[in-house]
């Protein structure tokens, strides 16, 4: 009698596709270390979602998750690079400590994530109002939406800012 227990779906998925995914990411990123990190993070996402048994097309599913992680990684690097350029332009006495730098970067990443979660219309309205100082009417005219829609989207964005501020 065979008493071997078949591995759980996540173990099988990992065993069957981790090497392939790591190679795919290495070709995309040109860096083995980052590829290994993102392959690991891809499987962590699946583990957190606990849905490995429902995957019908494993490689397509893995690539979809990995592409999102690659985009997130490049977005974070872009934000960090912009911040470092800003720091480099500051006079030396105004330089910030490594701890402050880490806190600022963490906050910038959180704001970026929050803005991304708003959706394109609300994000654009928030940015036009906050950084260009446009009135509701001008924003509505520019985007072809009503002033009521502008107010609704801006209220949602500001509510998210408050939630973010409470978490800090």
From TrEMBL:
Q: Where exactly are the transmembrane stretches of this chain?
A: none
Which CDD domains does the entry link to? Sigma70_r4 (cd06171)
Q: Where does the RNA polymerase sigma factor 70 region 4 type domain lie?
A: 109-161
Q: Which UniProt keywords apply?
A: Sigma factor, Transcription, Transcription regulation
Give the GO molecular function terms.
Answer: DNA binding; sigma factor activity
Instruction: Name the source's superkingdom.
Output: Bacteria
For whether the record's keyword set contains Transcription regulation, the answer is yes
InterPro entries on file: RNA_pol_sigma-70-like (IPR039425), RNA_pol_sigma-70_dom (IPR014284), RNA_pol_sigma70_r2 (IPR007627), RNA_pol_sigma70_r4_t2 (IPR013249), RNA_pol_sigma_r2 (IPR013325), RNA_pol_sigma_r3/r4-like (IPR013324), WH-like_DNA-bd_sf (IPR036388)
Family assignment from sequence similarity: Belongs to the sigma-70 factor family. ECF subfamily.
> Has keyword Membrane?
no
Question: What is the name of the protein in this document?
Answer: RNA polymerase sigma-70 factor (ECF subfamily)
Task: Give all residue intervals belonging to the RNA polymerase sigma-70 region domain.
Answer: 13-77
Q: SUPFAM superfamilies of this UniProt entry?
A: Sigma2 domain of RNA polymerase sigma factors, Sigma3 and sigma4 domains of RNA polymerase sigma factors
| GO biological process terms on file | DNA-templated transcription initiation
């Amino acid at each position: 009698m065979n008493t071997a227990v078949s591995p759980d779906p996540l173990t099988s998925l990992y065993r069957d596709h981790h090497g392939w995914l790591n190679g795919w990411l290495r070709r995309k990123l040109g860096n083995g270390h980052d590829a290994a990190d993102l392959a690991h993070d891809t499987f962590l996402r699946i583990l957190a979602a606990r849905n490995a048994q429902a995957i019908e097309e494993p490689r397509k599913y893995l690539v979809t998750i990995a592409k999102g992680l690659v985009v997130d990684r490049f977005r974070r690097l872009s934000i960090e690079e912009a911040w470092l350029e800003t720091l480099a332009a500051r006079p030396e006495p105004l330089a910030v400590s490594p701890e402050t730098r880490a806190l600022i970067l963490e906050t910038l990443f959180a704001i970026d994530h929050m803005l991304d979660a708003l959706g394109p219309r609300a994000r654009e309205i928030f940015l036009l109002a906050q950084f260009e100082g446009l009135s509701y009417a001008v924003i509505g005219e520019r985007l072809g939406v009503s002033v009521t829609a502008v107010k609704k989207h801006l209220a949602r964005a500001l509510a998210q800012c408050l939630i973010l501020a409470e978490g800090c």
